[in-house]
Design goal:
The chain is an alpha/beta fold. About 45% of the residues lie in helices and about 15% in strands. The protein has 37 helices and 32 strands. The strands form seven sheets. Strands 16, 17, 18, 19, 20, 23, 24, 25 and 32 form a nine-stranded mixed beta sheet that branches. A seven-stranded parallel beta sheet has the order 3-2-1-6-7-8-9, sandwiched between helices.
Length: about 1000
């Protein structure tokens, strides 16, 4: 016993590895290291951060700094933008290529210093080196690099995926995770212990700091803390309201206005933060933890592509400490409204701030031999983390991080408490509908519309309750409550998503498509109001005042669901921003306008409808517009969430402004929004189905460009389902775009070959009289082919198949054929495009769609169903040949086939007959066709369960249908007088 007691008193040696990403990790490591050294231990810190970050706080010979960089974190293009491809390339250069020599060096070094424990924040290879050296390791962090890098893989290419797996494998060697508040999914760690905030201590009082800096007590102070300067940013005197002073961290050689003060490079920022009235900066663990601990309001600007941020942001806003600033207002100097709003907050974090001391105690106990492996993360939590990580690994460019609702609602797992649970409960359980008066239209018995109207009726009371600081509400709900003038009419529209039954990507080549509007839909509430009556958000009001023009038409948008994704919940702009002098701005300028802030890029789908109406129909908007968007069509599932938003929004704009636009014309205008303003090269079938579809009927349309053949009744014995693979889909993804380009290239080659055949015939002395008149007409039509789908499969096989190369370099195509004739895509000269499969697919898909439509109306028989199912399977494998398949959708189709060909199905009447990937492919949802019977539904549930067992992801099932926007029309509503009096 005496020997054990003595061993627990002996000095320990810690090797503390700190990631090279920014100073935040180093500053929190300082606090843990300080407590270890105070306890009498030696700490070797492996870091790339400057010495002063550590020595300012720790003056001891027991702190030994070793300047080595073993990872690179996220490479930043500027203070607000992460360069995803450069991050992976830099990590590969820093940690992957020299991995073996790193491990040899670190193992040798760890043994040489006789380390008792390795601590990592959060360097992956440190855990593996510790294991190889026979030393235990512990990680201290709120995120891990496998989660952060998972999204970047989809930009850089699947060949980088091994980086994520290697990082996760390295982390798995550590004993356990010391998990900090505001943490991300981290499935690599089986054991975790939660600690309070790790926050650096204060050295000086607020009064001392202000006195040393020469700041009077009545001066309002904001500390600017970005860790660098955002690109294209100039600090101006009028950024600040009168009576304010800005303290600037990391200003380097910038020349500052008189109301800005540059802080010394080695300034101890916790003291300055605590002495300020608020902070302006980007979200990171250090800034958030210090804002919470010192109860300093934090005005933050979102960063691009750093997925730690939503989890910290939720914690910041839950404790009433955060105000989000739009990046545009940061760069243009419209700070005043945000700073004033920050001063009105009452930060209320009451949790512990001694995480450094607690973590140090855990590390010492572990080094002395105590085991913490009993504190396992629950299986449910690890599964949730793994699913979120899986989402990241399947994402495509252009999509922001999506945190599933069930994750945010896991309050018993999230130690910070979640603002979502209470807000969602109030959102879905309102008590009043009679508060609204419907002046025009009919809800058509749609329960989702009834629920949306109930929520509208409750917004007034939300606004009233929001005045109480005890009543925490979702920020987007507060914004929505302030959006409308409740004495004026509000227009409500609804547009569903769609299930692609057959046709899919061949729509851009003019194919016949058959589409089913689904039950899930987007609702939009819109109010047109005179600028003099418009209640602008404070920052928008300041922006208009600065222009000196008085009240001018403005657009304000609130989008529900932002708390589940890394995007801003609100957007606003002056409608004059859509004008270049007396004419509407170009689509190219508009696309750049929305692209400048990724957290608000979503607004292009909504605000873009206004610009398209201005340009295409010469509409001029003299009134302001307020829009609330609430969509139940899930994003990234391949069921046209973007089309539903566009169609619902344009329908509301048209109704409120008395524009008589047919459903077909509206769909074509919405396609322009997506093609020209958003920049996604989609066909038109999504918008057409959302606008023109009817419940439980297939919309039959020839996409040349949008000729509706009619609505096809689904026979009573046939039913369609959609099952989501969990792999995110986007028509903005590179694969979809390259296949589309390949199809248009193939079309140009076919036209060129047909022209050559005609010319050769005439050159050989054959006259038009000698040629068969029909043959000439065929070649002439093919030489001027407008849509690839107008070429029949037998003509393709007979004349053109062998003329189309498997692949072709972009610059080689340009040299031989010039432009590819597609106005919404651009050829990359250095890219090798797949041509044959991309050209062949729409030609045969058009044939399959025609055959499928004909079979729908044939007699009910197994032959009918088997033939239709076979057409779906052929379509699925044709997608894969184009490069638009995915592991998840292939697995689901395979499960359908196994179910179809099982002994039980063969011995009884067949139920499921076919399945295919849908829409733009590359993940998303599959469409399944089967008999309309109970057994089919049971088999769909079995497929769902088998897929979950195989992938740990429970897929969504889409079943049911609902009317398109044209059939729904619009509602014109107003809040009843008694409710108005109650909210006044």
């Amino acid at each position: 016993m005496g020997e054990e007691k003595d061993s627990r008193r002996r000095p320990l040696v810690f090797a503390y590895y700190v990631t090279g990403h920014g100073f935040g990790h180093a500053t929190r490591a300082v606090e843990v290291v300080r407590h270890l050294i105070l306890a009498g231990h030696v700490v070797h810190v492996v870091t790339g951060a400057p010495d002063y970050v550590y020595t300012t706080e720790i003056d001891s010979p027991q702190l030994i700094l070793r300047k080595v960089l073993l990872d690179c974190g996220a490479v930043q293009a500027d203070a607000l933008t992460v360069d995803r491809l450069a991050s992976l390339e830099k990590y590969s250069e820093t940690a992957v290529v020299p991995r073996e020599s790193i491990l040899q060096t670190e193992v040798k070094w760890l043994k040489s210093i006789e380390a008792d424990l390795v601590v990592s924040d959060v360097v992956p290879v440190a855990c593996r080196a510790a294991a190889d050296a026979g030393i235990h390791s512990v990680c201290v962090t709120n995120f891990s690099w496998d989660f952060i890098y998972a999204e970047y893989v989809m930009v850089a290419g699947h060949h980088h995926r091994s980086i994520v797996w290697q990082i996760a494998e390295d982390y798995s060697h550590c004993e356990y995770l010391i998990r900090l508040p505001g943490y991300c999914p981290m499935p690599a760690f089986r054991d975790a212990i939660d600690v309070p905030l790790v926050v650096r201590r204060l050295h000086k009082s607020k009064e001392e700091v202000r006195r040393e800096l020469g700041i009077s007590d009545d001066t309002k102070v904001v500390i600017l803390n970005f860790g660098g300067q955002p690109a294209g940013w100039t600090l101006k005197e009028d950024c600040l309201p009168d009576g304010w002073l800005c303290l600037v961290c990391g200003a380097s050689e910038m020349i500052l206005p008189s109301n800005f003060l540059k802080l010394a490079k080695d300034t101890y920022t916790p003291d300055v933060i605590a002495a300020s009235d608020c902070m302006l900066g980007k979200i990171g663990y250090g800034t958030v933890s210090e804002a919470l601990a010192y109860k300093i309001p934090f005005v933050f600007v979102r960063r691009d592509y750093f997925n730690e941020e939503p989890f910290l942001r939720n914690m910041l806003e839950y404790y009433q400490t955060g105000v989000e600033m739009i990046r545009r207002d940061l760069l243009t100097g419209h700070w005043g409204p945000y700073l004033e709003h920050a001063l009105s907050l009452t930060p209320c974090y009451q949790g512990g701030i001694n995480g450094g001391e607690v973590a140090a105690s855990l590390l010492m106990d572990t080094a002395y031999g105590k085991s913490y492996t009993s504190d396992k993360v629950s299986g449910v939590r690890r599964l949730r983390d793994a699913i979120v990580l899986g989402y990241q690994l399947q994402r495509v460019p252009g999509r922001d991080l999506s945190i599933p609702e069930w994750y945010s609602n896991a309050e018993n797992e999230l130690r910070t408490g979640s603002p979502m649970s209470e807000a969602e409960e109030t959102f879905f359980t309102p008590h009043y509908l009679e508060g609204l008066e419907i002046l025009h239209g009919d809800v058509l018995g749609l329960s989702d519309t009834v629920n949306f109207l109930k929520n509208l009726s409750e917004l007034g009371s939300i606004l009233h309750s929001a005045k109480s600081p005890e009543k925490r509400q979702m920020r987007e709900r507060k914004a929505a409550a302030k959006l409308f003038n409740w004495e004026e009419d509000i227009y409500v529209t609804r547009a569903p998503g769609r299930l692609d039954v057959v046709g899919g990507i061949a729509d851009y080549s003019g194919s016949l498509v058959l589409q089913l509007p689904i039950r899930e839909a987007c609702h939009v509430a819109l109010q047109k109001i005179h600028p003099t009556k418009h209640r602008l958000w404070k920052h928008a009001q300041v922006r208009q005042n600065a222009k000196g023009l008085g009240p001018t038409p403005a657009l304000q948008i609130v989008s529900y669901g932002s708390e589940l994704s890394n995007r801003g919940p609100t957007f606003d702009m002056d409608l004059s921003d859509f004008m270049d002098g007396d004419v509407p701005t170009s689509y190219e300028k508009a696309r750049s306008y929305f692209a400048q802030d990724p957290s608000q890029r979503w607004a292009a789908y909504i605000a873009g409808t206004v610009l398209v109406l201005m340009k295409e129909l010469n509409v001029r908007f003299e009134s302001s517009i307020n829009i609330l968007v609430s969509s139940a069509v899930p994003e990234g599932k391949g069921v046209s969430s973007s089309a539903a938003v566009e169609v619902a929004t344009m329908s509301a704009v048209a109704a409120s402004h008395g524009l008589n636009i047919s459903s077909r014309e509206l769909a074509l205008l919405c396609q322009k929004v997506e093609n020209r303003v958003v920049g996604a090269p989609c066909g038109v079938m999504d918008q057409m189905t959302s606008a023109c579809g009817e419940a439980n009927k297939l919309l039959a349309m020839v996409c040349q460009p949008a000729e509706v053949l009619g609505l096809v009744e689904i026979p009573n014995h046939i039913r369609f389902w959609g099952i989501d693979s969990g792999i995110r889909h986007s028509v903005g993804g590179a694969d979809y775009g390259s296949v589309r380009i390949g199809a248009f290239m193939g079309q140009e080659i076919i036209k060129s070959v047909a022209s050559r055949l005609l010319s050769q015939s005439y050159a050989n002395g054959v006259t038009s009289d000698d040629l068969d008149e029909d043959a000439v007409e065929l070649l002439e039509n093919e030489a001027s082919l407008q849509y690839l789908c107008n070429l029949s499969p037998h003509r393709f096989e007979a004349l053109y198949d062998k003329q189309i190369p498997e692949t072709l370099l972009g610059e080689a195509f340009f040299e031989s054929f010039g432009d590819h004739g597609d106005p919404v895509t651009v050829i990359n000269n250095k890219r090798n495009y797949g041509l044959k499969a991309a050209t062949k697919h729409p030609i045969y898909e058009n044939f399959r769609a025609k055959a499928f439509k004909a079979l729908l109306t044939s007699a009910n028989s197994d032959d009918q169903l088997n033939a239709m199912g076979e057409l779906l399977y052929q379509c699925h494998y044709s997608y894969s040949a184009c490069g638009l398949g995915s592991d998840g959708t292939d697995r689901l189709v395979q499960l359908v086939q196994e179910m179809q060909h099982s002994r039980m199905s063969k011995s009884a009447e067949g139920t499921l007959y076919g399945a295919k990937i849908t829409g733009g492919g590359s993940g998303g949802t599959i469409c399944i066709m089967g008999r309309n019977c109970l057994r089919s539904s049971e088999q769909i549930l079995q497929i769902q369960k088998k897929y979950k067992d195989a992938t740990e992801y429970l897929p969504l099932i889409f079943e049911g249908s609902s009317p398109g926007a044209g059939k729904f029309g619009y509602l014109r509503i107003r809040l009843r007088q008694q409710r108005l009096q109650g909210t006044s």
